[in-house]
Amino acid sequence: MPDLDALIHAIPKAELHLHIEGTLEPGLMFELARRNRVTLAYDSVDAVRRAYVFSDLQSFLDIYYAACSVLRLEQDFYDLAWAYLERAAAQNVQRAEIFFDPQTHTHRGVPLEAVTSGLHRALQDGQDRFGISSALILCFLRHLSADSAMSTLREALHYRHAFIAVGLDSSEVGHPPEKFRAVFETALGEGLLTVAHAGEEGPPAYVWQALDALHVRRVDHGVRCLEDPALVERLVAEQIPLTVCPLSNVKLRVVPTLARHPLKQMLERGLRATVNSDDPAYFGGYVEDNLRAAGAALDLSRDDVVTLARNSFEASFLPSEDKLRILQQLEATV
Ligand code: ADE
Ligand code: ZN
User: Fold this and answer.
1) Which CATH class is domain 2-333?
2) Measured between alpha carbons, how far apart are the two ends of the chain, in Å?
């Protein structure tokens, strides 16, 4: 569909669900392994790609956390984020709200300062070089304890300038949002915004908890909300954004095929869905690739694509005057 693909490329886009560690492409993985003298479990880029066949979220997370062992120094985090920004600029991404997982690194002895300052410095340079506005969202690993999340938050408050929100990721089932109520209360008290992964593999009850216990502004994934009509009604009534990641959902077998993905149905039901890439180095593409693939598989219309782009800016944490400016630019493009 050349016309739709041209539109998808041309319109300004916001990426709201992207794990920076999930942008580690095999080429950079090998370069960092060499630089830091880390031994990888693979002997070539092709072998890495062959390993990327997942049966569920956990089978992916095991490989993803292992790959993070190549990230050690401030410069590594800078290079990781810079490589992402180059790709984002080539896809007309104008706003990126980016997750990072500090515990994945601090638990290996990497100082939190190396993580935050490497990422933060790259994002500032990305604003100067590409005009991409961006912000960091600090995610707690939900398979670890609430105490660990709380001490991570307390330490991170020394770098409060570097992030705007907190989130919740990693193995969902068995780790309900409720477990992190106190941590999120503390974060909210510090003026941080909140988001959480919920309803990816976990049940609709986790989405309710994310809303009521964690006071999230957006739900990350949320696709399983469709199993609960009362939840859908609430998400529609309150226009809570859902950061949907179509290629991720196929790769992690949340849905059987892209053609059976509920994205189109979500739009038809009035849910404020956005399209995002999650862990693009692992799942086969960045935000434009997700839009193209979903567009083709679900027969999305031009209006659907524009709605998704509009939703992405409306759901962003940009100040309202910036939102307005980009939304005007979007309307001018279509
Ligand atoms: N961390 C990185 N990608 C994730 C996903 N899709 N779900 C939960 N945690 C993650
Ligand atoms: Zn995610």
Assistant:
1) alpha beta
2) 16
Question: Tokens standing for 134?
Answer: 């961006």
Q: How many CB atoms lie within 10 A of CB 334?
A: 13
Give residues (CB < 6 A) around ligand 1: 19, 22, 57, 169-170, 197, 200, 248, 278-279
**Which pTM was predicted?**
0.98
Q: Domains of the chain: which residue ranges?
A: 2-333
Identify the active-site residue in 172, 200, 201, 288: 200
Is 86 a residue whose pLDDT tops 90?
yes
The structure tokens listed for 49 are: 């790609």
- Pick the closest to residue 149 from 197, 116, 106 (CA basis): 106
- Mean pLDDT of the region 114-130: 98
Residue whose Cα lies nearest atom 10 of ligand 1: it is 170
User: Band of the pLDDT at 257, cuts 50, 70, 90?
Assistant: very high
**Torsion on CA atoms 77, 79, 82, 88, rounded to nearest 10:** -90
Smallest CA-to-CA distance from 53 within 68, 63, 43 is with 63
24 alpha carbon, distance to own chain's centre: 14
Residue nearest ligand 1's atom 4 by CA? 170
Across the chain, what does the average pLDDT equal?
98
- Which whole-number Å values give the CA distances from 211 to 28, 152, 309, in the listed order? 37, 22, 24
Give the number of C-alpha atoms closer than 13 A to the C-alpha of residue 260, restricted to the C-beta side.
7
For residue 218, the CA-to-ligand 2 centroid distance in Å is 12
Mean pLDDT calculated for residue range 19-38: 98
Told to judge if 200 belongs to the known catalytic residues of this protein, a careful annotator would answer yes
* 170 within 8 A of 198, measured Cβ to Cβ: no
Residues 199 and 227: their CA atoms lie apart, in Å, by 10
Name the phi and psi angles at 104, rounded to 5.
-60, -30
**pLDDT over threshold 80, residue 1:** no
